[in-house]
Write a structure and sequence with these properties.
Layout (H helix, E strand, L loop, with lengths): L1 H51 L8 E5 L13 E2 L11 E4 L14 E4 L18 E6 L19 E4 L6 E2 L4 E4 L4 E3 L15 H8 L3 E7 L8 H13 L5 E5 L11 H8 E7 L11 H6 L4 E5 L14 E2 L5 H13 L1 H6 L7 E4 L7 H11 L9 H6 L15 H6 L10
Helix pairs in contact: 3-6
EC number: 2.4.1.-
Family: Belongs to the glycosyltransferase 10 family.
Protein name: Fucosyltransferase
Length: 415
């Protein structure tokens, strides 16, 4: 009997010990599982935070960058970037993450495409009727023509350098003395100043000694600017003047690699020659002149009166090379003539500073206003121009005869 009682006590202790061990194992198991799940959740949150950020922000517009965009956009993925640009409406987010909504592209408010899309069939397979497709580029239509039929009726808005774009992306702006942006504009009315330039500007102008400089990296451009320059050099030679060429197309380099300082100190004129001729295509090249008190000599396909103050530049495409050479010589010989090219500084300023007027601010505002634009059914005609489809022809097509004869009066029915 005594032995049985001892055995019973032993079994009870064993059972208690066994139950305790089981409880410890279960607790340890639950702890490990919970710990692993927490780690997994943390890891998942790192990768999914961008995906679900959209669900945390109400009233925010989301724009998908479908194609790889250049650094000049200054965009940071999935960040509200506009506060730094002083936009009146800033709650817009740009992202490259196509999987933001589990690859449901139709849930984005807008999709932004650059010029690479013009010849690409890598496009969204479906779209929402309320979704805005935006074409954006700062390249000229000559360099990136829209050749494919599928470009027609694809875009809703355009965001380009063209003044007739839905939203214009200019390389620079002109402000009046009150700080209001007055150009580029299709309806600008320039004022003239008859007040002498400031003593500070006169001092800078009086130190100049050389005719003109040209910084160029694109050699043998199709705009035939090199051919014009050659003719101009021949006429300048008779006035004992010349144009100094710097950059990849020349063996000359700027002193201390500071071209702007050199232009400001030495040169009367700056050759702002575009590499292609396209409507409204006026790039930052003119700023090498204006920023350094050198009169820009422009060469391009734009109506420059929409962009630059009257009397502040010379237009090479409107002047015979000899007449341009003589105008340069005359300005260098007569200080008051040269100073007259800077009278605009009494009324205006030119800058590429995008503060308070960044084109992306306008885009954000337009999305929040709910601006609607129909599909651009004749996008290729608008972008290329009436005769621009010729630039879609293969290189094998072009020869000396077609180069000469295929102009605006030879319109091909490509649209």
């Amino acid at each position: 009997m005594l032995y049985f009682l001892k055995l019973q006590k032993c079994n009870i202790k064993s059972m208690i010990f066994t139950l305790f061990a089981i409880c410890c194992c279960v607790s340890l198991h639950l702890f490990c599982v919970n710990y692993i799940l927490n780690i997994a959740d943390d890891i998942n949150s790192v990768f999914a935070s961008k995906r679900y950020i959209i669900r945390k922000s109400k009233g925010t517009k989301y724009i998908l960058l479908w194609t790889e965009h250049q650094d000049y956009l200054l965009l940071k993925d999935n960040e509200i970037i506009f506060p730094s640009r002083n936009c009146s409406i800033s709650n817009c987010i740009f992202t490259k993450a196509k999987d933001l909504f589990d690859e449901d592209y139709t849930r984005f408010d807008a999709v932004l495409f650059n010029e690479a899309i013009l010849n690409s069939k890598n496009r969204p397979l479906k779209r929402n009727d309320s979704q805005i497709y935006i074409f954006h580029t700062v390249e000229s239509s000559y360099n990136v023509p829209a050749c494919e039929l599928f470009n027609d009726g694809f875009f809703n808005w355009t965001l380009t350098y063209r003044l007739d774009s839905d939203i214009t992306w200019s390389y620079f702006v002109v402000r009046n003395r009150k700080g209001k942006i007055v150009a580029p504009s299709e309806k600008i009315k320039w004022r003239r100043s008859y007040k002498a330039v400031s003593p500070k500007i006169k001092s800078i102008l009086n130190g100049k000694q050389k005719a003109a400089a040209w910084l160029v990296s694109h050699c043998k451009a199709d705009s035939l600017r090199d051919e014009y320059l050659t003719r101009l050099q021949e006429h300048l030679f008779h006035f004992d003047l010349k144009i100094d060429v710097y950059g990849k197309c020349s063996e000359s380099i700027c002193p201390n690699d500071d071209c702007d300082k050199m232009i400001k100190k030495d040169y009367y004129f700056y050759m702002a020659f575009e590499n292609s001729l396209a409507d409204d295509y006026v790039t930052e090249k003119v700023l090498h002149g204006y920023n350094n008190y050198a009169v820009p000599i422009v060469y391009g396909g734009a109506n420059y009166s929409r962009f630059l103050p009257v009397g502040s530049y010379l237009n090479a495409r409107e002047m015979h090379p000899y007449n341009l050479a003589f105008a340069m010589y005359k300005a260098m010989q007569i200080p008051t003539v040269y100073q007259s090219y800077f009278l605009w500084t009494n009324l205006y300023s030119i800058s590429d500073d995008f503060k308070s007027h960044h084109p992306l601010c306008k885009l954000c505002s337009a999305l929040h206003r709910g601006d609607k634009y129909p599909y651009k059914e004749k996008f290729r005609l608008w972008w290329n121009g009436l005769n621009g489809m010729k630039w879609c022809l293969s290189n094998d097509y072009w020869n000396e005869t077609s180069n000469v004869n295929l102009d605006a009066k030879h319109v091909f029915n490509f649209y």
